[in-house]
Amino acid sequence: MKMNKLTKVIKYPPGDLAIWIFIMAELLVFGLFFATYAVTRIDNIELFEQYQQTLDTTAALWNTLALISSSYFVIRSVLAVNANQQPQAYRFMLLAMLAGLVFVVIKTNEFAVHMDHGITLSTNTFYMFYLSLAFFHYLHVILGMIVLLVLARNLKRGQYTVTDSSGLESGASYWHMVDLVWLILFPLVYVM
Amino acid sequence: MKYTSQMVAKPYFIAAIGLFVAQILFGVIMGMQYVVGDFLFPEIPFNVARMVHTNLLIVWLLFGFMGAAYYMVPDEAEAELHSPLLAKVMFWIFLAAGAVTILGYLLVPYATLAEITMNDLLPTMGREFLEQPTIIKIGIVVVALAFLYNIGMTILKGRKTVINLVLLIGLVGLAVFFLFAFYNPDNIVLDKMFWWFVVHLWVEGVWELILGSLLAYVLIKTTGVDREVIEKWLYVIIAMALITGLIGTGHHFFWIGTPGYWQWWGSIFSAMEPIPFFMMTIFAFNMVNKRRRQHPNKAAVLWALGCSVMAFLGAGVWGFLHTLSFVNYYTHGSQITAAHGHMAFYGAYVMIVLAIISYAMPMLNGRKVANSMSSQVVEMWSFWLMTISMVFITLFLTAAGIVQVYLQRMSDDPLPFMVVQDKIEMFYWMREGAGLVFLIGLILYVISFFVGRDQPEAQLPK
């Protein structure tokens, strides 16, 4: 039987194994941070509940929507490459970056408001955790945006094809990780 | 050896080994002074022996790194070294500066040394590990700049490989962070904080890049595994080393007067520092298992594998033992720290330098790829003697540390420091015994260079 050259070989996990080791290591760092947060919260429940009220849940909700949309666009971009529609893939990647940018703008504004109120890492234990976690994640979003930028550039140059999209899938996986961490951070720090 | 200019690595390696021997001699002397306080007093007081022991370690590792770079960079860049002459001149300047410094420590009181070298003009002396006179520190910067220029120009004109670039970033970082040795603020909190910028950001930051790069080079050469695969691992490892190592510096900021959040930041990020080391272990064994050829230099492969394991144990596991702030509250500055320091330096940096020397020296001595079998056998004996005795040094110091922490800081009726030191004397004796075995291993290592020189190179079994 003649093999179609454009047949996509589905492999799991998608992307490069090295990126998955990196993702696991990143999740371990965040996981440890979340666990420490949860344990510390038990000992300081009143303090945490009191200051959680001061956070801007609406902004965080918009940010959640922004990151979920961004992840969706990244998936569409990968699917478009698999369907051999590179121009469409490029456009989806731009949309993904736009949604990521929305997150960065909203989050930067949140940080600015906190700074105006004179809140620092030393204000209290809750803010120490909130600011550390949020800022550490924020840095990851920025790094992820740089990754998306590289992916977009490569897509424009037509570097990814049906048979060779490992780089794209690796970058997409990383971006999903950034999204996933926020999906834990949001309910844990803002809502619960 | 493809490029004749790689030969400049040889004097660097020889000097490194010579200074290594001196370092261990002072280690053994100091180990004795732990139990016989006035041993060799007043000729070599304990504080001087300690300074010489730690300074020699740093200097010989720097010689090793430079030699490694001079050997590896031309090979990777596929180009002759920019200026072999500059490398040779810098070698003698660095060696002379090192020798003068050590003699200065040994021959005159430290305060006099500070006076002679005009420390008043730009005071930088007196801080642990950075005791060198200011003028010597300036000399180190000059040597480092000339070295980086030489290496950088070679890389620029040749093939750009990930291994070379990672090495270059590591070496530039090494030079940049050393500049904090000149910053000596009056505020003692800031003073301590920036002191760690040199000490921590070297060994738990940029040096790890150097380690990763050299390890990757030795593995590519001895296993024949695809460069692409090895480079990918290298990326992931150094990214992890930087993420955890840079903020992990915070584990030194627990008790020096910095804000309280460092207890959280330092604990969490440094708790992750074992990860890149663990990756390095997996990486090394994986590559050797996937090797596409056998390499006749078995000793070099042994050092590379040993390095990845011992670095994980010494830097990773023993570092983790006392890195969380609530544990460190009790263990800070105890023998647990000494245990960690010994195995981490040996596992991560001593062994990687010995691995690259083991790989390169046969070629520098005119062999095709490897030493004779009898020479390698002696070298592998030295590997096991040094490594196992270092494991024991670490275990004895850990035991001493646990008892020390309990008696001095945790028991209901805490005892004074010196009383506790008497009580843990037995562990110090055992450590000294293990130290002597280490010295024997090191002597064997030196002997291995002179064994079987007229015998043919080791061959692979047909």
Give your account of this protein's structure.
The complex is a heterodimer of chains A (192) and B (462). Chain A has 6 helices and no strands. By secondary structure, chain A is mainly α. Chain A has one domain: Four Helix Bundle (Hemerythrin (Met), subunit A) (Up-down Bundle). Chain A starts with 16 loop residues before the first helix and ends with a helix. Chain B is mainly alpha-helical. Chain B has 2 domains: 1-160; 226-453, Cytochrome C Oxidase, Chain A (Up-down Bundle), CATH 1.20.210.10. Chain B is 75% helix and 0% strand. Chain B has 16 helices and no strands. The longest helix of chain B is centred in the C-terminal third of the chain and has 38 residues, at 373-410. Chain B is globular. The two termini of chain B are 24 Å apart. In chain B, 51% of the residues are buried. The A-B interface holds A 16, 18-19, 21-22, 25-26, 28-29, 32-33, 36, 121-122, 128-129, 132 and B 232-233, 235-236, 239-240, 243-244, 259-261, 264-265, 268-269, 271-272, 275, 279.
Short description:
Chain A has 192 residues and is mostly helical. Helices cover 78% and strands 0% of the residues of chain A.
* Average pLDDT of chain A: 92
Number of H/I helices of chain B: 16
CATH architecture of the largest domain in chain B: Up-down Bundle
Full CATH superfamily name of the largest domain in chain B: Cytochrome c oxidase-like, subunit I domain
Number of strands of chain A: 0
Name given to the CATH architecture of chain A: Up-down Bundle
Q: How far apart are the first and last residues' alpha carbons of chain B, in Å?
A: 24 Å
Low-confidence segments of chain A, ≥5 residues, pLDDT <50? 1-5
Radius of gyration of chain B: 22 Å
Mean of all residue-level pLDDT scores of chain B: 96
Indicate the low-confidence ranges of chain B by residue numbers.
none
Q: What can be said about the biggest beta sheet of chain B?
A: none
Report the C-alpha radius of gyration of chain A, rounded: 19 Å
CATH topology of chain A: Four Helix Bundle (Hemerythrin (Met), subunit A)
In total, the number of domains of chain B comes to 2
